[in-house]
């Protein structure tokens, strides 16, 4: 039976209905991602950590961007980055000779928060303090 409000569409009839299927459903992403901001820091870039960008570090099997940010904030560092899923690196300036990496190089989930990206092999998910 044609729909009363749209004579070009079918609306079922006589205890029957029209069924439709769409395979264009949206799926919530479960891929890890960089945080836009965390505390007083903002995401800057995926960064090459060779040569080494910072000299101060901490590591933990429960590392996350938030955990690294808290360490950097407590140490009053301008920059911090997560690397290899479990490392946190901090400093007040970027070492000479270092450079951006391709965004896809920072592809490892944080050990302590799998929904967050924590850099990659020799790659930092780099954050900088937001000016206040």
Automatic annotation (TrEMBL):
<dbReference type="InterPro" id="IPR051589">
    <property type="entry name" value="Sialate-O-sulfotransferase"/>
</dbReference>
<dbReference type="InterPro" id="IPR002889">
    <property type="entry name" value="WSC_carb-bd"/>
</dbReference>
<protein>
    <recommendedName>
        <fullName>WSC domain-containing protein</fullName>
    </recommendedName>
</protein>
<keyword id="KW-0677">Repeat</keyword>
<feature type="domain" description="WSC">
    <location>
        <begin position="40"/>
        <end position="130"/>
    </location>
</feature>
<dbReference type="Pfam" id="PF01822">
    <property type="entry name" value="WSC"/>
</dbReference>
